[in-house]
Queue: 2 jobs
Job 1
Amino acid sequence: MMMMMMRSVVCINLKLVGAIFVLLHFNLLFSNYSVVAVADTKHVVSISGGCIENERHALLELKASLVLDDTSLLPTWDSKSHDCCAWEGIVCSNQTRHVKMLDLNGDQFGPFRGEINASLMELQHLKHLDVSGSEFSHGIFRKMFGSLSNLIFLDLKSSSITGRIPNDLGQLSHLQYLDLSNNDLEGTIPHQLGNLSHLQYLDLSGNILVGTIPHQLGSLSNLQELNLGFNQLNVGGTIPNLPIRFSEDCQVIMDSNQFEGSIPPFFQSASLLQLSKNKFSDTFLLLCSNISIDRLLVLDLSKNQLSRKLPDCWSHLKDLEFIDLSDNTLSGEVPSSMGSMVKLKVLILRNNSLYGKLPVSLKNCKKLNMLDIGDNRFFGPIPYWLGQQLQMLSLRRNQFNGSLPQSLCDLKNIQLLDLSENNLSGQIFKCIKNFSAMSQNVSPNGEEDYNFGYPTGDEFEHIYTGYDLVALLMWKGSERQFKNNKLILRSIDLSSNQLIGDLPEEIGNLIELVSLNLSSNNFTGEITSKIGRLTSLEFLDLSRNLFSGPIPPSLVQIDRLSMLNLSENNLSGRIPIGTQLQSFDASSYEGNNDLCGKPLDKICPGDEEGAHQKPETHKESSHEDKKPLYLSVALGFITGFWGLWGSLFLIRHWRHKYVLFLDNIIDTMYVFIVLNATKFQVWLRHLQEKFV
């Protein structure tokens, strides 16, 4: 027994010693923590607010330099507020409470007109900085940004900054996104930017940069978009074949510069290559160099100085979906190897000096949605093999001849058809009614949005808006370009050919048609009255034909019509009376000797006597006009009255049912009123007792 008691005492003592040891150890740790906290007061997290004190002061100094006297900006940035993490545009780390994001873009807060203060350097944990869209008064590019070594995202676009791009930006080794576009930056692109190995997005467009592209940018293996457009780069020189291999889905935009000479082959590794509005003269190196990486989806070389023949080496570019070579001086025939690009959706060769016949191999491009070869010298009949998926087809200003091919009847998805200014003959097929995309208020099955996007890390995401489908049309007498990405504009232009025959009635089925131009042909007969069904029509030109007979009164129904030209035909009779047709200028009807009525000065037969008689007063006119209305109202009243009361009077069974129906309604209303009146009285009595 004694032994057991001794063991219990020993056990208790051991537990007591262990507890004392744990307390002493905890006290030691707490003391060490206190010493460290006191020794580093600069980084103490405010218990009341949860904000780093020196960063809060830095932000207040930054506000003072940014907003100047405009007190309406950043109202939450108040010296009396201790939690800067709750201020607008600020995001702090949940663990350390350091400011990690500063978003002061001008679109959200309005443009800042002050300057960026050096106090920004206190935010050493900053990862995201956006001060775009401002109008900094002291716009010299400050070198301080290079010291924010943790930056991942830096956006200074449209901020009125000037001077050269600082070399120390190359020290931001974590940077993934850099946008300096739409400023007044000058000088050359610093080669130090090639040190930014994590960079995914680089936009230097819309500045005054000169010189060439530094070869060090070839180290940017993660680049997803490179935009150097709208500068003055490469003045007086060519781009060397730099050792650059762009990452997958990389978009290279260098339009509106001064690049010239041959296009180097390293651009093939991009997915989107936009080099329009430069002075490039040769595509052989780009197209015919056999490199291991070939990802091109979009190729825009429009508005350059490309000449000679197109090289016949398109076979290896099997992923191409969009090609725009318009507004150059290319000559020769279209190479047959273009037909090997089976994924091709858009082909624009407009405004060159290409000639001959289109290669039959293009029939392999079964996904082709847009074909624009206008303003060239192609000849022969219109190809019979044109794809059924076509939504935009422009063959304008060429030398195509012969009749319209029957295969045009298969273009069910067509929304823009321009065959103007050729030598086409024959009649318009009645199968024009098959153009279902123009006859239904729905999008065609083949329509797509030509956009694609890509993720660019956890901090941001960039989506390219896609390439433009630009249609060139004669609109209200002048040539205009339409960006038609959504294919909203439905148009048919067959003007300036030698087409004959009547205008088929089936054209009245195209109720979604917006523009119809059949001018300068040899159409005969009367204008079909079915044309009045085209209620979406805004542009109608039937001038310089041989149409005869009266103007169909149904034209008055097209209330959207803003341009009408029926001049130089053989039309006769009175111009239909309607506000729409009388609002056009007399020139819309001139050249029709037998037409009369407003807006022409020629008075119609029978109107002369009325002109000398006393004009009918508005009251008399109105009374005569309302007679049919009065008659309709009277007939409707008589029919409705006797239809109800006559039936009740003649049919006894119906009369009893009707009386019972009225009794039920009256009883229901009475019960409802009594119950609710009683409830209201009770509620009112309680309310009175409450206040008495």
Note: The first helix runs from residue 2 to 39.
Job 2
Amino acid sequence: MQRLVLFMCITATSSVQNFDENSPSISCILNLKCISEDFQISTPSSEQFVDTNHQYPLEDNLFKVELQTGEKDEVITLPSLPMGREKDPLLSDALSFIAGHQLGRCALVIAYDAVFADSLALEALLGMSHQRQVVEIKTPKDFTRLVWKSSKCRGYIFLLGNPVPFLNFADDTEDSWDYLGKYVLVGLSVADLNLFVSSKKGKKTEQVIGLVQEDPDEWKVYRNQLFWGEGVLVANRWRKQGFTSNAEIFPEKIWNLKGAPIKLITFEFEPHIIREKNPDGTGGRYFGSDVQIAIALSEALNFTLIIERPPKGEYWGNKYPNGSWSGLTGKISRNEGHFGMAFIFLTNNFDELAVLDYSRFYSYDTSCFMARTEPPLPRWESLAAPFKQSTWLAASISFLAFCPIIALLAKASDYFGREEKQLQSFSYSNLYTWGLILRVSQIKLPKRSPTQIWFVFLSLYCIVLTTGYCSNLTTFLTVERPRPTMETIKELYSSKLDILAVGYFFKESLVQSGNAYLKGLVPRYIGLPSYESSFDLLERGKGVLMASNTYLEYLHAASLVQPGVPSVRIMKECFSPYNIAIILQKHFPLKRSFDKVLASLFDQGIMRQWFLDTFQLKKMMGIEADFSEEASRKKNEKGGPTLTGGIPLSVDHMQGIFYIHLMSLLLATIIFLFEVYCLKR
């Protein structure tokens, strides 16, 4: 019995040799060593070779080695590729034409393995005048040595007898790859090409072709379809005469998607994304300014828009400690959607650019604060409203000075002649001055000329003062006076109110701010799960709502749909302007086309009009249930302006004078009791 020892060694430096069926022995064919005295070899054709370095399953080319040991036949099947293609001038001519005409202005990156080390194709490429980098591939790590970035057009030509390292590299991560480059792959079967275009790198690469020889006189050029369909298809054929057709092998695939489905991840966020309810209560069509932009993109690029929502309550998403994301951002980062919209700020506060990309901006906004509109000042304070504090102070000082001046002037006048004795009394002169201010006719008049002159000018002073007061008082009695409001960030800091916001995006903005008052708001920041959960706290004056100015404008405008007094207002001072953009998959192929369409829309200035149209449409649909006629009626009952003419003065309007009357009675009673007490003693 004969003894067989079979050693199989896989290396990247194996050599290829021809052999025939009658060879009595094999020694070192791709480091395949067989020690045997009697065996038979059968091959599909004389132009095939054994490639033990290729461990990736192929479809048809199989090399069969039958070993007969006398006792039992053993069959070992090994993958095989066409023999002699590294010396094929047809392939060399095809690659030279593609490099010269399709990649003529590009820098070249040429990667090859041991099978193509001495090939005519590699020799031809090295003889071209392109700026180039040449790398021999032995392991998947060798692909990381390639230069993947360039300021100019870049072409990549891979000559791979063993596609396994390349396929492993393509499906490893999305890093270390030029998604804008043009790729020419040689040595991969159709099945290999299909695997590549569905890999992490391949499915986001626009321009990929593969040359496959299925006939000795022809190389087929397969092209990826990107969004047009699955896998690869034949784009052209290369024969001795050249390409058999004028079909483009590197056509543009990002400007006309031919109705391909593109998935938008979004959620209801008024007024940018609103969903109309069907009569049965189920969700209906979407509309809003962001939806209009998505529709414009689908029409310009000819794709079918599919809308999908993130998990309920996750909204834009939060970053987990392990670096992953929830919500809309999470779905885009996991490639579960192509792009996401929800009036998204273009920022990298939480290292978002590590997992996604942004489009160019299509709008801009600022971060602002919404506070409760404080109830108006009490009506009784209207009695003091006609004059400013400084006017009241001047009038009070004048009144206190007039009383002794009248008494002293009357006494001085009496020294030169008789003057009214009562005017010489300080208490009477005080009462006399009050009479003039209240326009009460005086029985006792001054007799001496100096006192009479003083009396004339004092009367004029009192007339002007009381006329101005009475005229202005009418206005303040009929109009509600708002309380002083905080309008600046400094005033907000001093108010000690909580800062209400959805999530923690705005908190990071406060932390990174150089304004000391903004940084001081961080300890009072409260992240909420939704805007709806903040409304009650806002209405009760427990905090202020922090959001984009556009969204706050919408909330404020909604409270004015019906006549009445809005319960909220936007503070005048905002901060941190942001650009608004679309979030995209990392290395999204349509980014360039999206950016061009968005730039056109922005230049037309149509975004603001879409926002206003959305608001008008929402009003027409009667969605503002919280601001119905009943709510408006209740507000008007509190004394708000109406369209029926004058406003009759109620007890509420005149409450100030009643308070003064009660206070005077109380004061008179206290003085009376004090006098009684003094008399009894």
Note: The two ends are 149 Å apart (CA to CA).
